[in-house]
Amino acid sequence: MKAEQQYIDLFASNEALICQNSAAALNTPRTKAAEAFERLGFPSLKTEDYKYTDVQEVFAPDYGLNLRNLAIPVNPYDVFKCDVPNLSTSLYFVVNDVFSTQATPKAHLPEGVFAGGLKDFSLKFPGIAAKYYSQAALYKTDAIVALNTMFVEDGFVLYVPDGISIERPIQLVNIFRSDVDLMANRRILIIVGKNSSARLLVCDHSIDDVNFFANQVVEIFADEDARFDYYDLEDSSSTTVRFSNVYAKQSARSNVLVDAITLVNGLTRNNFNIELNAPGAQTLLCGMSVLDGEQHLDTYSLITHNAPSCTSDELFKNVLNDSSVGSFSGRILVKEEAAGTNANQTNRNLCTTREARMYSKPALEIYAEDVQCSHGMSTGQLDEMALFYMQTRGISLAEAKMMLSIAFTDDVINNVRLDVLKERLRVLVEKRFRGELSKCSGCGNCR
Amino acid sequence: MLEIKNLHASVGNKEILKGVNLSINEGEVHAIMGPNGSGKSTLSSVLVGDPKFQVTEGSVTFCGRNLLELSPEERSREGIFLSFQYPIEIPGVSMVNFMRAAVNEHRKYKGLSSLTATDFLKLMREKRTIVQMDNKLAGRSVNEGFSGGEKKKNEIFQMAMLEPKLAILDETDSGLDIDALRIVAEGVNKLKTPQNSTIVITHYQRLLDYIKPDFVHVLYQGRIVMSAGPELALELEEKGYDWIKQQLGE
Fold first, then answer.
1. Is residue B182 in a domain?
2. Residues B232 and B123 in one domain
3. What is the mean pLDDT of residues A235-249?
4. Which of A95, A116, A327, B12 is deepest in the core (most CB within 10 A)?
5. In angstroms, rounded to a whole number, what is the distance separating the alpha carbons of residues A159 and A117?
6. Are B49 and B82 spatial neighbours (Cβ–Cβ below 8 Å)?
7. Which residues have CB under 8 Å from A34's CB, separation 6+?
């Protein structure tokens, strides 16, 4: 219990302070989460689902936690002007783990919609907060989610009541800004009501070169006939550790897209846990990464088909350069009652060096009759015939490799259901491959 | 323009070209014929620098430069073009991006600035008509899902874009119906100038009805065993390759 002890101690001596700085809905499960954390402990390398990420090691350092909610000296608009051009998003900021109130947009969101701080929301709408908060994320079975639940004080909420379509995409920028090593426990809660639709783009940016630990939990509730797009763009730094747990619960005929794009990172673990709970629900879960140096990306997904006639499509692609390490573990669980399930999973990886490592494990568990399920996995190198063909047209080998690598990830970007964002991502990915996107400093990449 | 002397080339331990000699001058069209496995495609692959083949002996000079020292992309920029027998599909790379990269690398090599997007698209449009290529193909990924005929048209379209000094057409007639064959061959003829040269590799006389060669060579067992004027192709068509074997005393 070495790595765990500091968090147990910290919580025990600061529980009152944390509760005081937060809101009732967030405080309710805290003690139980702490108990669960103590009981579970961090997963070890022997835990099948965490085989390729040494969780105990990455949590062992003594990170500072800003439990007192001390104001971090930063004006988001000053350090960060990333408004993905032409997207005309409503732009919000979370600095480390606190919603920034000094930079809220004058966006004209439809009446009844709430986009803003989680703490603020929980104080204003305690009933709704209590109804949804921590109802999807399973702190009882996951120590990292439990840790987040213990320490989280704030975050972001998007609440869309029934029957509202938000045309304008909403953008949330998570800024990591600190002069000392810091752990941020933040939470994103998304509630999309019946027949409603919304799109959220979340960008992670590290401003400073200190060691950051972002432990984030995202809960998505898509009610009947709701449509929701969640785009998650990590553009942090090599000194950033990120654990992201995305939980989605989908009602009948809801349609959810989750697209996770890793452009620059240090060590990242992305967990996706999606439940299709009523007939006709559809999920499109996809992601791509470009890894180099010592970057590490560990993707885990569990899609559970709990109801008949639901569809899930999964597509993850990784390009691994240098000594980077990637892992993909994708589980699809089709319960007995989920007849008529259609589930597809694809994972394709490109290792451009001999030192790059990719571990991939598809797992399908099917207990229902009459289902269509498929999975495909491949890890390989660039097509040498294609490279040669391009060279015979005068294209240099380096350029040809670049073009093929960009092409390799293009179908993930094609899944983006927002044309301007799609084009913007194409540019970002190309810049990333060309090495022009080294590190975000005030988001130089988006200017 | 092109001077091949005693060229030997192998794949693995197997020697395929066993001393090819061939000289091509400006403006000439040479046909290379020969039975399966005689080394025709190997010769074209070696000329464009396919790393699968090792040159073990001999020399190739192109416009005064030692061709064998150059990378495939440098050979292309120097003006050599191969129309592939089996064009490669490149999913995810659009024809437009592919051609723009190629054309601009050629321009850079010549010390010219990159074409603007408008000028480039104009050039694409203009060259497309040479092989009656559908506009839709230009928006698609390179050769992906193209029919056999479309792929070959696309090769000649690329040739039109890059304006090579020496074009090597490797069995451009294979897999083509009569109409497509005519379009492709007419495309090649439209691109012909008194300065540029062509090597036509084919099994059949058929293509040579459209693309008239000045010289016909027979490649057999890794060597050019017979060279003559266009009448040789007709004679081969009539007598078959067994006739060559007899001539060689086999």
1. yes
2. no
3. 94
4. A95
5. 11
6. no
7. A8, A11, A12, A15, A146, A150
Nearest CA in chain A to B100: A395
Q: Is B77 on the interface with A (CB under 8 A)?
A: yes
pTM: 0.84
**Residues in A touching B50 (Cβ below 8 Å):** 388
Alpha-carbon radius of gyration of chain B? 18
Residues of B in contact with A397 (CB under 8 A): 71, 73
Output the CA angle A253-A256-A259, nearest 5 degrees. Answer: 160
Task: List all residues 6 or more positions away from A230 whose beta carbon is below 8 Å from its beta carbon.
Answer: A190, A200, A202, A218, A220, A246, A256, A257, A258, A259
Question: In the prediction, which pLDDT does B143 show?
Answer: 94
Question: Does residue B163 share a domain with residue B82?
Answer: yes
Q: Is residue B238 part of a domain?
A: yes
Sorting pLDDT into bands at 50, 70 and 90, what band is A112?
Answer: very high
Using CB atoms, which residue from A385, A394, A406 is nearest to B106? A394
B87: CB partners within 8 A, 6+ apart? A389, B143, B146, B151, B152, B154, B155
Whether residue A341 is predicted with pLDDT greater than 50 in this model: the reply is yes
**Assigned domain for B81 exists:** yes
- Specify the number of domains making up chain A: 1
More confident residue, A9 or A74: A9
- Give the per-residue pLDDT at A425: 86
Q: Are residues B180 and B236 in the same domain?
A: no
H or E stretch including A397?
A: helix A397-414
Domain coverage including residue B135 = 35-212
Domain holding A9, by residue range, is: 2-446
Extract the residue ranges of chain B whose pLDDT is less than 50: none
- Residues A327/A297, Cβ–Cβ less than 8 Å: yes
